[in-house]
Amino acid sequence: MATGTRRLDIEEIGDVTVAKFTDKKILDESNIQIIGNQLFGLVDEDHRQKIVLDFSNVEYLSSAALGKLITLDKKVKSAKGKLRLCCIKADIYEVFKITKLVKLFQIFDTQEQALQGL
User: Fold this and answer.
1) In b/e form, how buried is each residue of 22-37, taking b as 16+ CB within 10 angstroms?
2) Cα 21 to Cα 56: distance, rounded to the nearest angstrom
3) I need a surface site. Which of 19, 20, 42, 45 has the fewest CB within 10 A?
4) CB-based contacts of 13, cutoff 8 Å, min separation 6
5) Mean pLDDT of 10-34
6) What is the mean pLDDT of the chain?
7) Domain edges within the chain
8) What is the pTM of this model?
9) CATH numeric code, 6-113
């Protein structure tokens, strides 16, 4: 994969895959497509069961990006895996609250907390 198309920094911490978003704003349809494919690949191709998504770089998320997260959550659950989110800025967290996604996702303040007990 060309480095220009990487939208996630992937790190392995034990048996957990930590995916950190590199973009500040996740708006662009083609970027969202790339991010979605990378995330889905972790489950579908790499068979990762424990995934933490780190949002510390992200300042803005579009609704299309939220759609990808919901699809990822379904994939992870059907693979009997666990998905956790962390480091979400307050205004993005607000969107998760309004859309009731705080009920769907396990959201943690820090990466350390998200990794605990996974």
Assistant:
1) ebeebeeeebbebbbe
2) 8
3) 45
4) 115
5) 94
6) 94
7) 6-113
8) 0.93
9) 3.30.750.24
